[in-house]
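Complex 1080.
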Amino acid sequence: MSSLDVARIRKDFPILNERVNGRPLVFLDSAASSQKPVQVLAAMEHIYRATYANVHRGVYWNSEQSTELYDDARCKIAQFIGAPSPENVIFVRNATEGLNLVAYSYGRHFLKAGDEVLLTEFEHHANFVPWHVLAKERGVKLKFIPMTQQGTLDLSKLDELLTPQVKLVTFAQVSNVLGTITDPRSIIDRAHAIGAKVIVDGCQSTPHMPINVQAMDCDFYAFSGHKMLGPTGIGILYGKRELLEAMPPFMTGGDMIGSVSFEDVTWADVPVKFEAGTPAFVEAIGLGAAVDYLSAIGMEAVRTHEKETVAYAIERMSEVPGATIIGPTDPEIRGGALTFTIKDIHPHDLGTLLDREGVAIRAGHHCAQPLHIRLGLKATARASFYIYTEQREIDALIEAIYKAKHTLRK
Amino acid sequence: MSSLDVARIRKDFPILNERVNGRPLVFLDSAASSQKPVQVLAAMEHIYRATYANVHRGVYWNSEQSTELYDDARCKIAQFIGAPSPENVIFVRNATEGLNLVAYSYGRHFLKAGDEVLLTEFEHHANFVPWHVLAKERGVKLKFIPMTQQGTLDLSKLDELLTPQVKLVTFAQVSNVLGTITDPRSIIDRAHAIGAKVIVDGCQSTPHMPINVQAMDCDFYAFSGHKMLGPTGIGILYGKRELLEAMPPFMTGGDMIGSVSFEDVTWADVPVKFEAGTPAFVEAIGLGAAVDYLSAIGMEAVRTHEKETVAYAIERMSEVPGATIIGPTDPEIRGGALTFTIKDIHPHDLGTLLDREGVAIRAGHHCAQPLHIRLGLKATARASFYIYTEQREIDALIEAIYKAKHTLRK
Amino acid sequence: MEDLYRDNLLDHYENPRHHGGLENATISHEESNPLCGDRIRVDIKLSSDGTQIEDVSFSGDGCIISQASASMLMEEVAGKPITDIQKLERQDVLDMVGVQLTAARVKCAMLGLKVLKTGLYQYMVDHHHS
Amino acid sequence: MEDLYRDNLLDHYENPRHHGGLENATISHEESNPLCGDRIRVDIKLSSDGTQIEDVSFSGDGCIISQASASMLMEEVAGKPITDIQKLERQDVLDMVGVQLTAARVKCAMLGLKVLKTGLYQYMVDHHHS
Ligand SMILES: Cc1ncc(COP(=O)(O)O)c(C=O)c1O
Ligand SMILES: Cc1ncc(COP(=O)(O)O)c(C=O)c1O
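Predicted structure with pyridoxal-5'-phosphate bound:
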């Protein structure tokens, strides 16, 4: 019994009827990027076919229409994440750009040599490399919140780590490998107490559970549209108003200026100050449609469905001889991704063998090499779920794993 | 007699059958952003409906398919602009990001206080503000190539301007306001002679004429996909191999790394080094389809059609009492955009009045405020053309201008 | 169309009321809309007790919408108590203009009100502090 | 499927030829594919005139494709003149593997050849300079 009408939902995703290598596609890589419902495709297609023109400063109907739809999308997304206003919402290409924007515009201007950035050992490269570069460039130090054996954050030493030098704390709300869900408030309140700003990487949480950035009280929040039914090429950086206003622009050019003369340039107000050039506005409108779709289902129901799905996957995987689950096995603190290894089968070989059965999983380090070093693993396999995932697809996964073991005589 | 079969081309653009304010849409704002043919929409739609998965590192069919199509698009685009290899082609959001990438990654690392950047007075904000910011931040000086009365570059003083301090020269191959076409070699050879690097802003040239970056010998070349039949959210930065290799990355994160440990990070090879995070790969594939479409027509034919169109527009506009054409009136050195003013009618009022007739033009400073200051104008009106523009649409423009003059008793 | 640039609007544009500036203004404030270059200055002469707009005049240049709506606004506020001005809102100006404006053009119509209100506000802040 | 991990490939994976490293190797070179972590080291013993591969051995860890194709490659090059090795290309390795590989897995299959060629190349450059 699922909390979602998955059969109905699947009708909105034409790709789920496709066959791969002669088998029905069993798509278990939504954590890398989700599939898109026809509603999202139709919203974008309609613009291109019927109303398209560039946004901003056009005084004719099509351009005003684009501007209005673009603004609407920003409003919807602000509401979806509980932002106080659409002005807190900056459109970027993806979470990676959002995090780089903070590293460049906030990091380069408000951090100095000797300051520290506190992060976790399970960050995605997108939330590790920009800080590594900042650290090298500016003499900033990186520190890491340790993990428990189970794969959760060990917050027992957090207050010791939160020295006065710590100016920024950043962490993924849900780890894309371990699946670990961290309660943001458990870190944010203590970081704020010492005056540090907090960035939350919401890439693996925004698509999968209710989010309220105001309740969370984070200072910045980044996520990608393509992981939550939206198109590629669009993502969001949320920021608190006073921070965004204090920050210099990141990229500069058209649209983000107040006025330009040969001698002087002034900036537009936030969020436009951070959106240089023609934005990916059709994609933004697509993401708005994705948010409509998710809101109609209800994010509580999405979370419940994934909890059920991951619980079932954990149960089934636990039966497989030689299988090891990476990260927490309690569905209450695990997002909809199950990472695992199979004894004596390299994840790439497993991925290839599963592909031949139409089962799409990810194999590798999932852009989290430091974590894999910590775990002592070169690579892992990951099956990840979303609103359209059915239990029978987990069964197909398990069956394909048994078949792979048989083929490889393991 | 057009050199293009415009009637046939128009069948590929469903939006051109739409009505606006009760009148058939006469879309004359392609310089801001072009319309898209069904072939481009179909290429993207097909991915989302039938094969979608994230690119890179996936070992299953869908992901490999995405990667292959993404790589193909890069090849097509490299070929379209005459790049020596797809590795010279970096996918960015738009020309603005491409120019910012150069300003950050090349400018911040290879320019120092006292160095100079030489640009023109007609640059789009995208190719002015990033240099203005760099200048303020690093004590770099900006200098400007002057213009003739006619609106072309006055290159008589170029060698004097090219002092040894000049490290970068940058200019739009076609001005988005004046329409002026500048022969890149007339500047590039002389700039190279003193060891300066040259960036060409190809936003208004790539969509409209044959481009060969190797023949041009520019060091960097930036343009946007959405102005050349492609979707929003995708653009290109071309760079010479040895420069791209010497430059540090701009944004960092997933995909663009060689390897990552807690202590050290290495970068992937170019161009991937410059593409952090999940790319706008569906849009890149869409741009590849746009390039296919344009190649099938032939860029020589596109240029010829626009030359004819702008010649006709100049002829018709010259008859209108009180009309002043801004920029060259010789179609040989003018791209497919006609900028003008009508005596005693503010361009915004004109834009609104034309909109009521279904005629979409742009009014304002077209993101070129410095140029408007130089011209002593607050705003201008611009009608711009593309492969689907018919002479009767120019007639509709002229007729609507007469009607506006009548309404406003001018 | 027949509606948008109707006679009343054009009349205000061509024969602007309360136009040309004031000698001995109590308050002078000017702003421009950087994106389109429209510019408006408002001169205000307050009554001796500082509660009333005794006279008001604008000057500037820009599109019909911005200049005509400024003219209409001047007519509306001349002789009124400051407290009335503070109550003026976006919709009031739209009502004066009386024609349907698209979003991009609403900004033009609002420039006069913005200049008027900002000028008054800055005066009051300065006055209060002294 | 039946094809991809067919007996020959699995046999090479489970019973790798020329495996375990060499004592007194003339050349030792190791590389890993950073994106998947596959790692291969190749030890080469050259003939005294330096033109021939007298013996060769690999060690490493990684997926079946990378390890089995390295094993096949070792068998192929043992005893061959260096000039033959220089001629070896991508397609030669694909022919040894003999099964259809997708683009992502071709990279795995090429690791052994890359290590072998780079090791030889570096040796020759060093040798030439000395
Ligand atoms: C000459 C020129 N440069 C740069 C740009 C900026 O393009 P985008 O907004 O797509 O980054 C434009 C487009 O308006 C342009 O015309
Ligand atoms: C936790 C986390 N952070 C950041 C990213 C980067 O997302 P994108 O590639 O869309 O920028 C991902 C996606 O892979 C992720 O899972």
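The radius of gyration of chain B is 22 Å.
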